[in-house]
Amino acid sequence: MAIYQFGFTVIPKSGVLDKYGQVPERLHIDYEAWEKYRKTLKYNGNDDSPNFEDALTFDWWKNSNKNAIAFIEVVDSIAKRSNWGNFDEYISWKNAGDEIADEDAFIEFENVSKRIKEFGFRFDLRFGVNEFLFTLLDLCAKNEMLLLDKRGNLIEPRIDLVFKLVQTSNAHRFVTNPSKFFDLLNKGIIKIE
User: For the chain, how many helices (H) and strands (E)?
Assistant: First the structure.
C-alpha cells in the first residue's frame, strides 16, 4: 500500500456481533505474529496461511449470506478491473476516474456459492473524496458492513468516521507535510503503520 493511501478491510456487522455480542471500537491485530509470519512465508505451493487468530485472520464472513455478485456489479460500475489477481474466485479493481488517483478494491469469494470470503478497498488521500469512496461507503452501509483499518479501528461506513481516522494516520501526515513526516519517522516519533 502506498503511503498516500488509506485502506479498509470490510467485514459484516453480523460476524462481529456473532463473535462479541456488540461492536467494539477496536479489534486486536497481532502485529508481532504478522511480522514473524511474513519473515517465514514461503511460496512453495503449500498452505502458507497464518496459524494464529486475530482480526485479519478470523473468518468474519463464515455465517454471512452476502453474495459477491451484487458487490462485484457495484464496484464494476465505478472502477475498471485490474490486470492483477483476477481469478475465478478473486477480482480486483483500479479506480477508473479521470484523475491519476491510486485507488483500488478487491473481493475474494467461493466459486460455487459466491459467498464473500474477503473484501477491501484503498483510497488515495491526494485527491480528496470522490465517487469511488462514496459509492463503496454506500455499498457497505446498505449491506450492514463495518470498516476495519490496519490499526484495528472498527467503524460504521460513514464519511465523518472515515475522516476522523484519516486525520490520525501516517497517510494524512505524509500528504499534508511529507518533509515533516520523514523527519518524525527518522526520529522514531512515528512508526510505519
Answer: 7, 7
DSSP letter for each residue of 61-115: TTT---BHHHHHHHHHHHEEEPSSS-BTTEEEEEE-SSS----EEEEEE-TTT-B
User: Is 192 among the domain residues?
Assistant: no
Q: Convert the pLDDT of each residue in 47-71 to its tens digit.
A: 677 889 999 999 999 999 888 999 9
58 burial class (0-12, 13-18, 19+ CB within 10 angstroms)? middle
pLDDT digits (tens, 9 = 90+) for 70-99: 999 999 998 888 877 657 788 999 875 555
* Structural domain contains residue 100: yes
Residue 37 counted as domain residue: yes
Quote the cell numbers at residue 176.
499534508
Q: Domain range spanning residue 106?
A: 5-186
DSSP helix/strand/coil, 26: strand
**How does strand 79-81 pair with strand 90-95?**
antiparallel
Answer whether 0.85 is exceeded by the pTM.
yes
Asked if residue 119 lies in contact with residue 137, where contact means CB atoms within 8 angstroms, the answer is no
Whether 1 has a pLDDT exceeding 70, the answer reads no
